[in-house]
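During the second half of the funding period, the structural biology subgroup turned its attention to how the target accommodates small molecules. The most pressing case was iron/sulfur cluster, which had performed well in the primary screen but for which no bound structure existed. We therefore specified the complex as follows and requested a full 3D prediction, including the ligand pose.
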Amino acid sequence: MNSPRLDQPPYVADRLAWRRRASLPVRIGSLMVGGHAPVVVQSMCTTPTQDVAATVAQCIRLAEVGCQLIRITAPGVKDAAALGDIRRDFSAAGFGHIPLCADIHFMPKAALEAIEHVEKVRVNPGNFADKKQFAVLTYDDRSYAEEIERVAERFRPLVCRAKELGRALRIGVNHGSLSDRILNRWGDTPAGMVEAALEFIDTAEGEGFRNLVVSMKSSNPKVMVQAYRLLVARLDVRGTPYPLHLGVTEAGDGEDGRSKGAAGIGGLLEDGLGDTIRVSLTEPPEAEIPVAQALARRYEPPPFSAQGVPGAPTERLDPYRYQRRPSETLRMPGADGQPVVIGGGSLPKVLVPHFRTTTSNVLAADVVLVDGSLWGAVPRLRGRRSPSERLPIKGLDGALVQVLPISDDHFEAHPPGPVLFDLDADDPALALDAAIGRLTAPTLLGIGDPGALGATRAYRLLAAIIEARWHRAEAASTGSGLRHPLLIALPHERDPLAIAAVAGGLLIDGLGDALYLPAAEDPTRTAFTVLQAVKARVTRTDYVACPSCGRTLFDLMEVTEHIRSATNHLDGVTIAIMGCIVNGPGEMADADFGFVGSGPGKIDLYHGKERVQSNIPFVEARERLIQLIKDHGRWKEPSSV
Ligand code: SF4
């Protein structure tokens, strides 16, 4: 069994085994979530809720592409009442088996109306009963307890009615909209997110109600993964493993949005966590479903060994707190002829094989690998390459990459060129330990074939063995321990979602000094996209864009494109584009600048979390945003890039 050494209880029994978490079954209409049910995919309508015909039409489109649960915003009581008409017409169209969920912020009255009509209601603990928005307040223990009781009083009627009607509730925490009370005591942290959920869970359980689903969303996949893990650990201790709704908020669109969603959601599915998922994209909601289905399908039937690795050393990383794994520094010949530093806390690097180089790959990649026994593995994925086709790239002095079976005790490594181990032995922990022991200099290490473990667990094992060897050497005062840097290599993986789930999940755990994705359609771009998704290395403009919903105050897709067309040359700048401020400025915590709907035809601009301009007419807003970026010295003219 391999549980990290921590003060916190573990969130899974063994991080080197893949087992689906055993959650409580929750009934949502005729749909089961949790228990042994397959992962449910869901989405959210973007139409104005009171436009019943448009909303029903969008629900039908979602159902027809396989959406199993549909959320609809209910900003006010009239919207909540419209849910009755939507439910009626959607059922009449033949979709009575697909449950609807009302999305509530600020409005207990709307929640009480909605629960009459739909199978599930989502409440946000950060704003369910709070009108004050994002004020800095101080609470002593007494006023804190009074505040909890005040909120519980507002929540209890909904719980009681849900119990009477046999409905489900989702306690949907958002990192960006934690209450003043939680922020005061816990700060803007995963631990605070968990406390916010537990306060509402306590109230529900106090009424004997357990038909609950819980979510811990953030636009930052690292925060989101840590919050879900902490929640699971706390719920397991309480003996109430409620099912989890997984999602990354404000992920944006296109490959960046998919990659962020896959890194966060896929990273948790790699842990065996998650009962229902929503991939938020700033695109028509139907586009979310195939992405969610592809992620869920990867784990059904269970794809990896549930047995763990006998004799594996204990991992020393803290899965609840981000810390980059310490490693030795290496220098490898770079694509531009200059040496590239790998490991030692430097920014993660991108390696590409010479047979996949294109002009853009060579220009962008940090290192081009021009030779090596990886060719032995290549025919499995490419089918037609042969060593005679290895053409040296003129002017590039690349490093050797080798794929070595751990069962081969005569191998000769050529550091610092990467060594990828095939886990081909019956006792992988022992054999890998012995193989690493034969290295006499810092070497960039990765996994070639992970075997039944799957890549995530194989890399965890590799990191744990390197670390254990280093600690043994330190304890013995031999001074010969080597913390070899890690190369996250997925030599056979072509699917960008799978790549983001595995590589992103490992980076979220602080593992990985370089990426090597030779089978991806564009190995360089895919690697930089994954690094950007988990904020390990931001190399192009990053857009934190909400998926839009019935609250959206402008056409989000059009506006995102409008802003992107003027700003997508700004390397390393993060811009948040939000349909409204319901999830709070905290949701833009990682953004340098924010563009937020504040009313019909009006925009607020933010610098970081601070609102710096209010109620700007929409037609002026993009130019004002550009001026704001210039004022803060982050602008470059497109021609100068
Ligand atoms: S931020 Fe976007 S998705 Fe969230 S409530 Fe506002 S408009 Fe809807």
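Two results from this model are relevant to the next phase. The pocket of iron/sulfur cluster is lined by residues 546-549, 551-552, 578-580, 582-583 (CB under 6 Å). Residues 141-165 form the longest helix (25 residues).
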